[in-house]
Amino acid sequence: MPKYMFVYRGCENCHEPEEMQKFMQLWMDWIQVGEEAGWLIDKGDGLEPDGAIVNPDLSITDGPFAESKELVGGYSMVEAANIAAAIELAKGSPIAVSGGTVEVRALANVEMANE
Amino acid sequence: MDRFMFLQRGGCEDPPELTAQQMEAGMKAWMDWVKNGTEEGWLVDPGSPLSKTGVVVNPDMSVTDGPFAESKEFVGGYTVVEAPDMAAACELAKQTIKLAGGGKIEVRKFANAGE
Fold this sequence. Notes:
The complex is a heterodimer.
Chain A: E1 3-9, H1 17-37, E2 40-54, E3 60-62, E4 72-79, H2 83-91, H3 94-97, E5 101-107, H4 111-114
Chain B: E1 2-9, H1 20-40, E2 43-57, E3 63-65, E4 75-83, H2 86-100, E5 104-110
Antiparallel strand pairs in B: 1-4, 1-5, 2-3, 2-4
């Protein structure tokens, strides 16, 4: 079964205190459903807004990048029959229903390299 | 030890034509990197490149089709490492760039949400 990465962006109201609790509950429910059904292979995590970029010349640009709405806020990994099925799973994600976007990307096959 | 995600930024715009020999050497370098990282314990997940196409699910449940390869925010692949701090994680990213002969890596600390 193909694996897909969900790349989360721009979930601004997830960080409002009053929304946070509601969001955490939705998130935990979603994880439970996905793990029981077997399609959630890695619930993933949020990523802290500060970070660094290592450039091709090995120089380092420090974050934070928090002002960018393009900032990757977190990720999960799912398994689905095809991209259409993965999109349906993404629609159920608490990120999408909380005002963020979910980018759905197939993992390129590198099993060979991992052997 | 903290976990960090490497997000490879930008696609390989002009992939060089490789001979079978160069490809084999590249694959071997990659496998050695995975082996070293696993043995030394800092490589949590060698990760994977992500396919160039994909979709974005928006908060209103509309779906925007990719590809996004032209975007500078394009995530080309990911890797998960473990390091004592951001500076050490950046050193591992430098190693990766040297091995790959180029590229740009965004280094982001895991938020450990819900842990």
